[in-house]
Write a structure and sequence with these properties.
heterodimer, A: 116 residues, alpha+beta, CPE0013-like fold, 2 domains, 10 strands, 31% strand, elongated, B: 426 residues, alpha/beta, FAD/NAD(P)-binding domain, Immunoglobulin-like, 7-stranded mixed β-sheet, 5-stranded parallel β-sheet, 23% helix, globular, binds flavin-adenine dinucleotide, binds iron/sulfur cluster
Chain lengths: 116, 426
């Protein structure tokens, strides 16, 4: 049994997920809570956002995000991939900064433009 | 930049950009946005996390992405922008307002405008404003300042961190600093509930096993040059620290996330009426302030937790400013009847504070915050004297989450007295 708080909407229902019973979800006030509870208990994923270094831009840093959610437990290892990266402007949002993060088929992409 | 505009917008954050775009869409041609920072986007530029735009763009964007979308449409629309330029004062003139600007390139100058949009955003409460005892050492900063150092300037703020206050920016920074390798020991909140969104508590604290200590506060900060130790204590229901509940934490950094205050120095100096409950200007249904032709939107009006609502509100302000300029009608004069929106103690404030029925096209939204969390279903009841005008059910409400109700023109037209009261009932 796992206790979770549903974050799909502001009500924040307290869900209980029964791993031994086909991930049955209780405590939800709507069906979206079931989907959230199942995926959160089976394979919790997150979009990770951070920044990387920019050489000679107006800004010292360029913000990045994973273009798909990655497994929650891999957030720190994904962060390590960003160390030492240095972008050279111009940067356009959507540019791939790190491809195929830890084999998850998600990329770190730039989330803003940085002109030359 | 010319000397004379139809509309000037003070502040290039999402509120200012939204107002400019909507006024342009409604036919204004000479619009200027004045921004004191070197670029547009406001606070969104430092909010690199995702979760913006779910309501408005129906997509989960990061702050910079949300800003970029607005800035792109601005460029397509030929709206003048003056960055690195600060508005120092606004003064009424015959035909509108005179705006005094200062910039390194052009020095001190004046611009005349018919309509003015206030979109200066808010700033964070600082330690002085909440008075924590202890020594004045380095290493104490607001969560938003830390956000700027880490996300824009690229400096790490500390290694062992404690966060006072559970506002959203503090929660977001707890996760951000943890991912960057700091140890966040706790988030300490004096109230028995958090001021942040529950999704942020789950994703920023629970994900990283950072404890949230409710009904606790920092009662002492020690250190020689930099913070070395803080004492946290539990408080009773009157917020008095309880003896022998002290916990000491060895930390080098204290982040404050103790609330935001609308930035209204310019507004006050211009003699525009301020609501003490919001610390923002009093506005009518179309976001017009007590001075005709001056409109306000975004965090300068009231603190928003979701940027999507800022965009919506600013579109309303821009539309009203365009109508003001194009129709040359002074809405203050043409409308005689005004309904005041009043609330009881269960509600912190409402925006707008005043409604002129003449100017409502189809419906109007009233935004408000509850003072205390309601975990069981409640009704929001709008009354004209004893007469119920509208009633809405809400399964859950919390002070950290701005609420709104929509009432139709028909319902407004039913109001006979000049007062509409809002209350929360079982
Ligand atoms: C540190 C911080 C973090 C936040 N994080 C989130 C978040 O994660 N998610 C979320 O939805 N909301 C967040 N918010 C709320 C957020 O502020 C709003 O969603 C939104 O950005 C408000 O838009 P705005 O345009 O009203 O204000 P702002 O974005 O603050 O823009 C106001 C602009 O006006 C400019 N300005 C002010 N005075 C003058 C002057 N005199 N002359 C010229 N220019 C001036 C400022 O430089 C600024 O660029 C955060 C707020 C703060 C303060
Ligand atoms: S279960 Fe449904 S109602 Fe409850 S928090 Fe999740 S989405 Fe909201």
């Amino acid at each position: 049994m796992r206790e979770l708080i549903c974050i799909v909407c502001p009500q924040g229902c307290h869900l209980t997920v029964d791993e031994d019973n086909d991930y049955e979800v209780t405590g939800n006030r709507c069906l979206r809570g079931v989907a959230y509870g199942k995926s959160e208990a089976m394979n919790p994923t997150r979009v990770v956002t951070s920044t990387v270094c920019v050489r000679s831009g107006v800004h010292a840093r360029c913000p990045v995000k994973t273009d798909h959610p990655i497994p929650k437990g891999d957030a720190f290892r994904a962060m390590e991939l960003l160390n030492g990266i240095q972008l050279i402007p111009p940067v356009q949002r959507g540019d791939i900064v790190v491809a195929n993060i830890l084999g998850h088929q998600a990329n770190f992409i730039a989330t803003r433009d940085i002109p030359e | 930049m010319r000397d004379n505009y139809q509309m000037v917008v003070i502040g290039g954050g999402p509120a200012g950009l939204g107002a400019a775009l909507s006024a342009r869409g409604d036919g204004l041609e000479r619009i200027l946005i004045v921004e004191r920072d070197v670029e547009l986007g406001g606070i969104l530029n430092q909010c690199i996390h995702n979760g913006f735009g779910l309501h408005y763009f129906k997509e989960e964007l990061t702050g910079p992405e949300y800003a970029c979308r607005l800035i792109d449409s601005l460029e397509e629309n030929g709206i003048d922008v003056a960055c690195d330029t600060m508005v120092l004062a606004i003064e009424p003139t015959e035909g509108g307002q005179r705006v005094c600007l200062m910039s390194a390139n052009e020095g001190y100058r004046f611009i005349e405008t018919q309509a003015l949009i206030l979109a200066m955003g808010c700033r964070e409460r600082t330690r002085g404003a909440i008075q924590i005892p202890g020594t004045r050492v380095a290493g104490i900063l607001t969560a938003g300042t830390a956000q700027r150092y880490v996300n824009i300037e690229g400096y790490m703020v500390g290694k062992r961190v404690i966060i006072l206050g559970s506002g959203d920016i503090g929660l977001i920074m707890a996760r951000r600093l943890t991912l960057e390798g700091a140890k966040v020991l706790a988030c300490v909140e004096i109230m028995p509930y958090s001021g942040g969104l529950s999704r942020n508590i789950v994703q920023c604290l629970n994900d990283y096993d950072i404890p949230l200590l409710l009904s606790h506060t920092i009662t002492n900060i020690e250190g020689k040059k930099r913070v070395e130790r803080v004492t946290v204590q539990q408080v009773n229901s009157s917020f008095v620290p309880i003896r022998r509940t002290e916990i000491d934490y060895e930390v080098d950094t204290v982040l404050l996330s103790v609330g935001l205050i609308p930035e209204n120095e310019l507004t006050r100096a211009a003699g525009i009426e301020i609501d003490p409950r919001t610390s923002g200007p009093v506005v009518f249904e179309n976001n017009e302030t007590s001075v005709a032709g001056v409109f306000a939107c975004g965090n300068v009006l009231h603190v928003h937790d979701l940027v999507d609502y800022v965009t919506e509100e600013s579109a309303n302000a821009g539309k009203a400013a365009a109508a003001y300029v194009i129709d040359k009608q002074s809405m203050h004069e043409s409308s005689k009847r005004t309904i005041a929106v009043v609330s009881d103690d269960s509600i912190g404030y409402t925006v707008p504070q005043k409604i002129r029925p003449t100017f409502i096209e189809k419906s109007i939204r009233i935004f408000f915050r509850v003072r205390e969390p309601h975990k069981t279903p409640k009704r929001i009841i709008l009354r004209d004297d004893d007469q119920v005008i509208a009633s809405f059910r809400r399964p859950y409400m919390a002070p950290g989450e701005m609420e709104h109700v929509t009432i139709s023109k028909d319902q407004i037209d039913q109001i006979e007295n000049n007062q509409l009261s809002i209350s929360i009932e079982a």
